[in-house]
Amino acid sequence: MTIVEAILYGIVQGLTEWLPVSSTAHLRILPSLLGKPDPGAGFTAVIQLGTTLAVLIFFRKELSAAIGGWLKSFKKGSKSGVDAKVGWGVFWGTFPIIIIGFLAQDFIKSDAVRSLYVIAATLMLGGLLMLGAEQYAKGRKGRGEAKIEVKDGLVVGAFQALALIPGMSRSGSTISGALFSGLDRNTAARYSFLLSVPSVAAAGLYELYKGKAELLDAGITNVLVATAVSFVVGYASIALLLKFIQKQGIGVFVLYRFVVAGVLLLMLQRGLIQ
């Protein structure tokens, strides 16, 4: 991997991590277009730490309040406060992806799952899921953060686990799950950001520890550069995405996913990429 490729991977990660289009899919497609080998699931997980840091800084007040409300709920014995509800929502929503991700890690990293044909299929399936969620939420008055319940955390957490399959998209899956749960668009998007922190951070740190050999092959400098670039680009894209989803919804990303999947399949069939 060259430093230019590392920068490109960081830009793609930063732009697509929060868009419901699957950063993992794009980080799998890009090297194929460049005629390069797959950088691997470990590399992808580690550079996601950059975008996770972006969320930590951007939502530092909300995260601090959620953690504080969650801790205070133990002392007071009440989970009725808004901050406590958000904190418990993130807590319960993190369990499914952590458990499934740990148990199925070998399957998730397999070449079969990271196949470009699988990614084309999951891009379309994820698009259909998002389209269904958008139609379900259309015309409904969704609930805000003050009305987040335990079941919302479990439901959205289950949807987040779908993102373990490349192409499904963590943000797309969680936003869809939140809309199906009855949360409004703004709350769904913000909840998706907050819910990403523990799961993505845990995966990145785990791969940083376990995948040392793979990361050394990529080059420590390249990994650091890609992570730093993903942080800068990811931070800049958060506010834009929040405003866009609140006003426009996620319909345009459904169309984008179908187009990318169609072009990818066409290129594979014609042998333009391996």
Question: What are the key terms here?
Answer:
274 residues; mainly alpha; 78% helix; 0% strand; globular
Describe this structure as you would to a colleague:
Helix 4 (60-76) crosses helix 5 (82-103), helix 5 (82-103) runs parallel beside helix 8 (150-161) and helix 9 (170-180) runs antiparallel to helix 10. It is built from 13 helices and no strands. The radius of gyration is 18 Å and the shape is globular. The model has no long low-confidence stretch (mean pLDDT 83). The protein has one domain. The chain is mainly α and 274 residues long.
Secondary structure blueprint with pairings:
Blueprint: H1 3-16, H2 23-33, H3 41-58, H4 60-76, H5 82-103, H6 105-109, H7 116-137, H8 150-161, H9 170-180, H10 185-210, H11 212-218, H12 220-248, H13 251-269
Helix pairs in contact: 1-2, 1-12, 3-10, 3-12, 4-5, 5-8, 5-10, 7-9, 7-13, 8-9, 9-10, 10-12
Domain count:
1
Gross morphology is globular
The total count of helices amounts to 13
The helix fraction, in percent, is over 70%
Extended strand count: 0
SSE succession: HHHHHHHHHHHHH
Query: What is the residue-mean pLDDT, rounded to a whole number?
Result: 83
Distance between the termini: 18 Å
